Amino acid sequence: MPLELLAAVALLPIMLALVLMVGLRWPATRAMPLAWLVTAVAGVYVWKMDIGFVAASTLSGFGGAVNVLIIVFGAILILHTLRDSGGMETINHGFYGISRDRRVQVIIIATVFAAFLEGAAGFGTPAAIAAPLLLSLGFPALAAAMVCLILNSFPVTFGAVGTPVWFGLKNLKTPVEAAIAAGQAGDITTFAEFLKAVGQWSTLLHLPMIFLLPLFVNMMLTRFFGQNKSWTEGLGAWKFSLFASTCFAIPYTAVAFLIGEEFPSLIGGLVGTALVIAAAKKGFLLPKTTWDFGPQSTWEEDWTGEIATDEKAEFKAHMSQFRAWTPYILIGLILVLTRVNFLPLKAMLNDIKFTIPHILGYESVNFSMKPLYLPGTIPFMLVAILTIFIHGMKPAKVKEAWKDSIIRMKNPAIALFFAVAMVEIFKQSAHNGINMPSMPLSMAETAGALAGHTWPMFASFVGALGSFITGSNTVSDLLFAEFQYATATNLSISHQIVVALQAVGGAMGNMVCIHNIVAASATVGLAGMEGMLIRRNSLPLLVYGLIAGAIGCVFIYVLYPGVY
Predict the structure, then answer these.
(1) Are 516 and 149 in contact (CB under 8 A)?
(2) Taking the model in full, what pTM does it have?
(3) Alpha-carbon distance 533 to 170, whole Å?
């Protein structure tokens, strides 16, 4: 079968998911099982994989999904525990009153604070917290959803303690180690070094948008939701915006280079939030004039949803700010203590391992879990339990938090089980009965032939497509990392930078990801506005991808042409 036809067949389940979820508005719980089925059929009838091999790959994918779902559950549990302990309202009370300027509130809450939430928890947590917070502060629901979705981009590559990198790129272990063994990997001597390098390149590719995107979002805010419909009013807070970006970008980049891929967003967001709030309280670089929305009587009908926006937001402090923030402080501290190599805790947690080798007798299909090293257990679930005592929660509130968290797992579980299973079949299709490239390699070779050396300009948009379809940067990386790696191999260009463009694209795709848009809209009571959000958010997505692609081209062809 011609390679181009193989590539078209491999692309079919992806396009099917796109049509079902975007065109027909199917939920991922229905679309992803069907996409998996088409992938399985293609594996059996086109790539001539044994049915048992496809079944084993599916089981391995289900196991991989369990690893991610444990993290998702821990993240949701932290959120609900703080909600029911009164800690979240106390945090909101602390934010309220720092500044009445809506542009400043966007910078503090939707940029640096949301970046910390993404780094600590990921999986939609920033939208679940930041968008309702903005709504309660007096934002129109549509504005709250828009700004939170767009700004939940550059932190996402390292969301949930780096999960999109260390888990999303795990399928590259075999080709990277093969390149190392063949002496073709340059200075890279281990797969861990390769992942760290990808994280470093990703921060550099994100860096311009860390400074430009908050400015652009505030311009969109004043243009679409201001009384004067002005783009330039959004620039009124430019000094404070650039200061906040600097407070985030320096630790974000430093951590990627000095520590690794797990902490850039978490540490950058934590340090940035602390510095920006302290500066705002002192009035440092704040705009001289305060910008606000007009009276609610002048708002357009589609700005608001089922949840009313308060003209005058009021929050109650149920405890001290330090006590309310203690769970997040513990999360950051425990994550650092259990991830740095010079302490014994990392090795101790990694030693506890559960494996299922050679699933159904197929040598290349395996499953592995390190239950205590997964951040869903330590620190998320651990801190959720400690919060019961730190915040003095009543048993009824504890029960409610755990019950709601378990209920919330149904839809993510169904979507992730079949999405990761589909990706595993993609991966295992390398072991086929037709002596042809795997599904990702077929697409890579065809795409590389079509795009040629302009590929770096398109690489990030492929990552964005993956997030748009699957609702996850992690799954986008699982889906397309091998594709990107193989394309770099075929074009003899830097593997690290091309894979970093994939990781950056998977992050920026969160702006238009249908899952995130639906979830963020639901948290602020919006319905039927998903199309408008996709259209508006597509503009910053396009700008993001073009800038990342241009920088990638400069890195690959001008500054570092020899990087592995």
Answers:
(1) yes
(2) 0.78
(3) 32
